[in-house]
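Researcher: I've been going back and forth with a colleague about how Sugar phosphate isomerase/epimerase family protein might be arranged in three dimensions. Neither of us has a model we trust, so I'd like an independent prediction. The organism is Pontibacter ruber, in case that matters for your notes. Sequence below.
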Amino acid sequence: MNKRRSFLQQLGLLSAGFVIAPSLVSCNSQEQTAEEKSTTDAAATTDTADTAASTNLSQVGIQLYTLRELLPKDVKGVIVRVAQAGYQDVETYGYSKDGGYWGLDPKALKELLQSNKLISSSGHYDFGQYIATGNTDQVKTIIDAGKIVGQTYITVPYLGEEVRGSADAYKAIAEKLNKAGELCKQANLQLAYHNHDFEFKKFGDTTGYDILLKETDPSLVSMEADLYWFVRGGQDPVAYFKQHPGRFVMWHVKDMDKNSPNLNTEIGSGSIDYKQIFSQAGLSGVKRIFVEQENFAASMDPFQSITQSYGYVKNTLL
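Model: Here is an independent structure prediction for Sugar phosphate isomerase/epimerase family protein. You can compare it with whatever you and your colleague have in mind.
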């Protein structure tokens, strides 16, 4: 986690709030509650917005942050290797108006992806300036880029420590997410929020994540469930799927090293029971899955790693 934050600082992408990178009520009533109707409406909205992204989970994606050490040095070569590994979808990170995506403007990136039979259905974007000031110019810039690339989901990947210190702070964040979500909806896009483990810190009898789930409008703000960080935070992702069905439209799939839980490993080689989680995909409402690995064993070639993870997801979990 510290390495990721340091990396973002080096890129100059760590701002006052969000940076790039990366509710516990069950209703058994047969009548549709207002919350359930909101969830249904959210799913319908996402279906309408889902242009580049098929709901076919067989299109396995990868969060390109996995290859952050290689990507800026050889964007085209890395994208070719990603496609050769079997992936059909990529989730971007690190966009800036001046630098684009690792030196490529949105149009050039889309053309590169198309030439390799890839899509990008989601991107992680820095929302820090917007959260700090409320000025929506940053959100509009992000939306413009995402639309050109052909993305469906505009994803908030991280909350800076300085903005998440209390329950009221999370409520204020939720309000801004709703506003950004409305702008995305107007552009036929869907805002999503990606978790780590810090959201599960308790504030009295609730958590930051529960506040975000409660205070954001499901039709405006979807969730990208990072399953590793759920487990790392002591949470059961399936329990959340049951409490908020249909809310978790994207997953980050990365495994936990059996001996060092703070490290990742190839999918299927770690301690997370992904067979059980994938059995509840319908309950989650998941439409896109992205393999991610934030660190590799010293002896492991990154491309061998992502190929191995792809094979396990494709052949064992789907």
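Researcher: What would you highlight for our discussion?
Model: I'd start with this: The CA atoms of residues 42 and 114 lie 29 Å apart. After that, consider the following. The first strand starts at residue 61 and ends at 63.
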